[in-house]
């Protein structure tokens, strides 16, 4: 009985290596690189990475552009409380606005109509009136300050230089402010000098004191003059008004 043995494998042809050794080395290197990149032990990731490298290197297309940034209002930070829907937020905003309009309605004294547009117009007009009033009061305060300074200077001068003349001419001036009115009652007693009422009227005119009532009489050689005059804001003090009148009487006499 005879057994047949398998024939040994035939060796690879030696012509390829002998004819071009450089070509054989490059083929072996390329084979090793390909087999290393496509190692089946790495699983599917190896095959996919190899395919991506080949496709990316061979296509030559630019990488995709990044997505554009979103414009507009960014959402605010979330609170720990329950979220409010848009309808509920709008309702709260309207309630708050209505409360503000009610407060504005209570602050404005006169309102032409009971709508929001008329209320805003009346509020703007009222604010303009208040601003004008403030400017007027500031101007009056400045005038009063200037008048007070002038009266103080005049009082010092009159007290210093007019004391002797008062004793010689027996001049007596009484000033009394009228309660509740911006007016003052004056009584000037002088000797029977010439044109005593004219001197008093000139002094009142120089101080811009409007005369409401005036009376002149002569008793026992003395001239008595009574007058009620309107007093501006800067002279509503009995001492200041008396000093200013004495100074003006000295200049006119």
From TrEMBL:
Annotated PROSITE patterns: BHLH
The protein's name: Transcription factor
Positions with biased composition (Pro residues): 1-14
BHLH domain segment(s): 81-130
Family under the similarity heading: Belongs to the bHLH protein family.
GO terms of molecular function: DNA-binding transcription factor activity; protein dimerization activity; transcription cis-regulatory region binding
Alphabetically ordered keywords of this record: Coiled coil, Nucleus, Transcription, Transcription regulation
Compartments it resides in: Nucleus
Gene Ontology, cellular component aspect: nucleus
Pfam entry (one): HLH
Region spans: Disordered: 1-93
Domain of life of the native organism: Eukaryota
Ranges in a coiled coil: 120-154
InterPro entries assigned to the protein according to its UniProt record, in alphabetical order: AIB/MYC-like, bHLH_dom, HLH_DNA-bd_sf
């Amino acid at each position: 009985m005879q057994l047949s043995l398998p024939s040994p494998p035939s060796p690879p042809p030696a012509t390829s290596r002998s004819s071009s050794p450089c070509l054989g080395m490059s083929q072996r290197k390329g084979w090793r690189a390909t087999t290393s990149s496509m190692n089946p032990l790495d699983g599917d990731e190896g095959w996919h990475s190899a395919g991506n490298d080949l496709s990316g290197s061979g296509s030559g297309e630019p990488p995709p552009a990044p997505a554009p940034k979103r414009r507009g209002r960014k959402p605010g930070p979330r609170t720990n409380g329950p979220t409010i829907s848009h309808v509920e937020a709008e309702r709260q905003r309207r309630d708050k606005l209505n409360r503000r309009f009610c407060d504005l309605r209570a602050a404005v004294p006169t309102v032409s109509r009971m709508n929001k547009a008329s209320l805003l117009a009346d509020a703007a007009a009222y604010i303009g009136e208040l601003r004008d009033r403030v400017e007027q009061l500031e101007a009056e305060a400045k005038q009063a300050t200037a008048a007070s300074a002038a009266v103080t200077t005049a009082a010092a001068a009159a007290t210093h230089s007019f004391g002797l003349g008062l004793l010689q001419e027996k001049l007596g001036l009484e000033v009394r402010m009228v309660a509740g009115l911006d007016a003052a009652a004056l009584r000037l007693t002088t000797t029977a000098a010439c044109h005593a009422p004219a001197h008093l009227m000139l002094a009142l005119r120089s101080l811009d004191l409007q005369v409401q009532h005036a009376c002149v009489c002569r008793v026992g050689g003395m001239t008595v003059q009574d007058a009620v005059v309107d007093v501006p804001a800067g002279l509503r003090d009995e001492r200041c008004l008396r000093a200013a009148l004495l100074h003006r009487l000295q200049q006119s006499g």
